[in-house]
Give the backbone structure.
Amino acid sequence: MSAPTPNRAQQLAYRRARLRAQCAIQRRQLAEVGSRVEYELGGIDRAVNLVRGVTSKPVLISAGVALLTLIGPKRALRWVTQGAFWYSTGRRLAQVLGPMSTPAQVIDALRKAGQSLQSTDRGPQARVETDPR
C-alpha cells in the first residue's frame, strides 16, 4: 500500500472535523429533547405522587365522597372545569411574565400598573386626591 497523499489526508481531516461538528449539533438537539421529555414526565411523576398520597389516606377519600354527595356531581364537575381553566391561565400568565415567578412579585407588578393607569386616566382629578391639604 502506498502512503496517503497530502490531498487525501486533508480530505480525511475535513471529514473528521465535519463529523465532529455534526455530532456536537446532534448532542445539543438530543439534550433539548431530553429536557422536554424530562419536564413532561416530571409533571406525570408529581401527579402520580399526589394520587398515591391521597389514596393512602382513607379519611381524605371519605371526605371527598361526602363532599361530592353534598354538592352534587354536576356542580363538582363545573368547579373542577373552572379550576382547570384558571390553573392553565395562571401557568400561561406566569410563562409570559417570565422572571416575575413569585405570586408576590406578580401582584406588586399588577398593583403598580394599576396605580399608574389610575393616575394617568384621571388627569387633573388625581392631583386633587393626592393634595395633602
